[in-house]
Design brief:
Elements (H helix, E strand, L loop, with lengths): L2 H24 L2 H16 L9 H23 L15 H14 L1 H9 L2 H12 L4 H8 L3 H16 L7 H17 L2 H7 E9 L6 E4 L1 H10 L1 H4 L2 E6 L2 E6 L7 E8 L2 E8 L2 H5 L3 E2 L2
Parallel strand pairs: 1-6
Antiparallel strand pairs: 1-2, 3-4, 3-7, 4-5, 5-6
Helix pairs in contact: 1-2, 1-3, 2-3, 3-6, 3-7, 6-7, 6-8, 7-8, 9-10
Length: 283
Amino acid sequence: MDARALLAARFEEERPRLRGVAYRMLGSLAEADDAVQEAWLRVDSADISAVQNLPAWLTTVVARVCLNLLRTRERRREDSLDAFPLDRRDDGADLAEEAQLADSVGLAMLVVLDVLGPAERIAFVLHDMFTVPFEDIAHILDRSPAAVRQLASRARRVRGGEAGPADASKRRGVVEAYLAAAREGDFAGLLKVLDPDVVLHSDTGAAPVVLRGVRAVSKGALLASEVARSTQVAVVDGVPGLVLAPRGRLAVVLTFVFDGDRITGIDVISAPERLRGLEIALG
């Protein structure tokens, strides 16, 4: 077997692991496969005579490809709801495989990763999930090891989060009741947790939407009952809220204003620049 054929065989042995690395960085199976294939094109044309640790070097190549994709995605704002429609149709086999991958990583972890910027995401995935030394990641990100260490630390803070105010448990119960009622189409359940004068603001459409009053807001929640199945409770800026993250891709966040055990205000946030400004913790 010549050198190129041997390299191709070694790459195929590493492909499943590299795919897992790319999936955790990108949160999309299709993009992960594209990234691994792009990495192979780079590897196939590279001089690897000085490479001593091929698996580590291949991880670095994949990471660089993923970093470029993440930066391009951020510039194009591909994480907006319009760019990631909830009723997107994919091949059934791909959907099943992606669901299996998402389960193996954990939805909460995918949401945490999606909140992070490209450099933070690369640093956290490589170091905390694949034990790549900060010194090696520093070369990929063109930063100092100390700076990379700080990047990775933010993901840990987001992952753990803060307990929130003293009555966070009570508020979380209210949010959980709201979510359960929305999922089940329980109009009476929504009336129990929504203040009669509740106001909902939403930026998810072409123009801002405002709903006033418990009946209008309840009807809106019931119309979104299918979407609610992909929604989970989170701590948003220290207060219990909801995040909508199909297959781990953060799309919409709901924040709440409370008066005792009633919800008086709901802010539905999907604008990418607003999502990036939120501190989200899941647990």
